[in-house]
Design goal:
Layout: E1 24-36, E2 40-47, E3 50-57, H1 59-65, E4 72-81, E5 89-100, H2 118-123, H3 125-128, H4 132-154, E6 158-159, E7 165-166, E8 178-181, E9 184-188, H5 193-199, E10 205-213, E11 226-235, H6 239-260, H7 262-267, H8 283-294, E12 300-301, E13 304-305, E14 310-313, H9 314-323, H10 336-345, E15 349-353, E16 376-381, E17 384-391, H11 396-405, H12 414-419, E18 427-433, H13 434-441
Helix pairs in contact: 4-6
Length: 462
């Protein structure tokens, strides 16, 4: 009868320290490199938390020579101090168990030393995640999502889940995915906009983090057909109130990433992974690193900090763009070229506020003293739009008129308009493109870098 192989480890890579010297431990992961110097072998093993050095000798050296790199193994051994300059401790192996063999040639180099195209890497995404820089991006993504949830819950927001299959194209756009729903026409939701507005009638403050779908045949580094959105809606809030909420949320996410994942943030800004030291949690040093990493100045006081986010009115933006040779008139939308020029003028995060009503959806509220303007804003990072939001129209008659003005059928909004007869409170909200935010936070140049299995006009696999 063959010996049963254990598949349970005792320690991760980031748990192995001087405190364990002399202890017997069991580690698991993938063989990254083997340096064979004859009677001794130095094996670099990686798990999702980091890298470990394993020393093999005797029969075990013969075994390791037969195992292909990137194979999955379990190693039992004793922790000892290392003589290597960059390695504090190592594991002297006494048993190696091959759990799964890697078949070569591999489609990509998971160490990242040999570069592969983005498409090839996505085609082999599971293997790509062994690249420490790539796995760092998705650890940061996980931490950022948790930070957002914690922040919104602390502000008494209730997390909700709205339908992703809807019966009418209620937001009017042509960029909808149509599907058959038991013989009926249905669509994949572009956003939870109408649902989250209705929910303010009873829950007052709601948020949702979920996937949404837009059938745009865009071939840019910032557009996807399926994307993750963070949506917020709050009763008894004006648009300036929810602007402050999104600014505070961005501050908190950055703060949490710097506090909890400083090494991962550093990895996303390096071409080749190097050994890292844990960054200081001193508030002044965190502020300095925020300026260094994100190009924004900050001062942290206790647990909060005042990240300055400039506010630029749409009218001011138009005038600034005229000054740099972009011929725009009031009421024109801002093209990609215009936003890139505006981003050159306003580094880092900034708001564009008070857009013309004709550029905004039917549910946006007008400004009382200037009805041609809307109570709205976009949060930008350079040329990249991260958030769009504003105050919503809560008067049912005005809302119905706006629907007609924009050439939409009021009959398609019956379910939505019903809620406005039940004491709809004034409310405001926003939607944040989470994938785009992660582009900014991880210094990525393509949104596909921060999405595990991106979907666009050309890609439906893996």
């Amino acid at each position: 009868m063959s010996e049963k192989i254990s598949i349970s480890r005792s320690h991760f890579a980031d748990c192995i320290s001087n405190d364990l010297v002399g202890s017997d431990i069991c580690i698991a992961g993938w063989i990254e490199d083997v340096r064979d110097i004859g009677k001794l072998g130095f094996v670099s093993m990686r798990d999702f938390t980091g890298i470990m050095q394993v020393i093999v000798a005797g029969d075990l050296l013969g075994e390791i020579r037969m195992i292909p790199r990137q194979s999955c193994v379990l190693v039992e051994g004793k922790v000892q101090r290392s003589k290597a300059k960059n390695v504090e401790v190592e594991i002297k192996a006494n048993k190696i168990s091959l759990l799964s063999k890697a078949n070569h040639p591999l489609p990509i180099d998971p160490t990242g030393r040999v570069e592969s195209s983005t498409d090839k890497r996505i085609d082999s995404r599971a293997l790509d995640l062994r690249n420490p820089k790539v796995s760092a991006i998705f650890r940061l993504r996980s931490t950022a999502l948790q930070s957002i949830r914690n922040f919104l819950r602390s502000r008494r927001f209730v997390e909700v889940t709205t339908p992703k299959i809807i019966g009418t194209s209620t937001e009017g756009g042509a960029n909808l995915f149509r599907c058959d729903y038991f013989g009926k026409n249905a669509y994949l939701a572009q956003s939870p906009q109408l649902y989250k507005e209705q929910l303010t009638v009873g829950l007052e403050r709601v948020f949702e983090i979920g996937p949404y779908f837009r059938a745009e045949k865009s071939h840019t580094v910032r557009h996807l057909a399926e994307f993750t959105s963070v949506d917020v809606e709050a009763a008894f809030h004006d648009y300036t109130d929810v602007m402050k909420i999104v600014a505070d949320l961005v501050r908190k996410v950055i703060y949490d990433l710097l506090q909890q994942c400083p090494d991962d943030l550093k990895l996303t800004r390096e071409k080749i992974a190097e050994p890292h030291t844990v960054a200081s949690s001193n508030p002044d040093e965190i502020g300095h690193r925020m300026e260094e990493i994100f190009g924004i100045s900050d001062n942290i006081v206790a647990d909060t900090f005042a990240l300055k986010i400039e506010q630029v009115t749409y009218e001011k933006a138009i005038n600034e763009l005229k000054g740099v040779g972009e011929p725009l008139s009031f009421g024109d939308d801002l093209s990609d070229t215009a936003l890139r020029k505006l981003g050159d003028l306003h580094k880092g995060f900034y708001f564009i506020t008070d857009w013309p009503m004709k550029l905004k959806p039917f549910y946006i509220h007008e400004k009382e003293k200037h009805p041609e303007l809307s109570c709205s804003f976009d949060l930008q990072y350079g040329y990249l739009e991260l958030v769009s939001g504003g105050r919503r129209q809560h008067d049912p008659e005005k809302l119905k008129n706006r629907i007609v003005e924009q050439g939409l059928d009021p009959g398609g909004f019956e379910d939505h308009l019903k809620a406005f007869q039940w004491g709809m409170p004034p409310h405001s909200g926003w939607g944040l493109g989470f994938d785009r935010l992660m582009m900014v936070l991880t210094n990525s140049q393509n949104v596909r870098e921060v999405v595990l299995y991106p979907r666009d006009a050309e890609r439906l696999r893996p």
